[in-house]
Amino acid sequence: MDPAQLATMQILQGLVAAVNNLQQNQQAPPPPPPPPQSKLRDFLSTRPPEFSHALEPLDADDWLKVVESKLLISQCSDREKVLYATHQLTSSAADWWTTYVAAHDHPENINWDEFKNAFRRHFVPEGEIKLKRREFLDLKQGSMSVREYLTRWTQLSRYSPYDVGTDDRKQECFRQGLRPELRHSVSNVDYESFQKMVDKTFVMEKELKSLEEDRKRSMIALRNTPNVRPRFYPHLTCALVSILHSKPRVIAREDSPIINILPAETISFRHQGRSSLNSSGALLTLRSVL
Question: How far apart are CA 95 and CA 85, in angstroms?
């Protein structure tokens, strides 16, 4: 066989082998798809909070919002959202969910929207939201500091979004709850923002505290001051001498707790154009004599 025929035979054999390999590959079954991967691990890696109960109704709503955001990050399906969110329920909240599922006709069909609505009806009741709004509108500073009042005001303001919907309404609500002396001070000025008014309220509170401390120190100093020699009133000398040498009668002045010793007989003297005794000897007043 000449070299040309030999080369032709080798080419034909290579083509036959290639066709046979192609046929074998087409007949082989495709590889199985990878098993579905659970997203629970991805969800738990975001550290979602657990929920057992709420001291404030909106705390439950906050939990629901946080968990929903973490479910979106994990790209969970609608059914997975329900399963993973309820996985974070504990204590009384877990008991509520167990009862809800047991009473459901088709618990396997509970979707995310149904879970959210049921959760809010139970843990964020509308009636309690209304009570919290009334508590916000009636809130007064009282004995609280401005910092304590601001903290409580901010917490309750979430229940009344309309009343804090604009900066002007926020200022009005905050101002109405302040103590009278602070409310009067901040009411005389128009502030460009709510935060400016709050900052000024802190300053005013500090100034009022400083004034009160100065007043207390002055009162203490006054009590500790030695008795001062009484003043001498020449225009009363004659009358008082006559009183002291006369038979006394005790008469209490109605506008003063001081007991005055006066003579039984009629003594009359005038001071600043008024008579201190009437004709019967009864005391009229000694007001503005001293």
Answer: 14
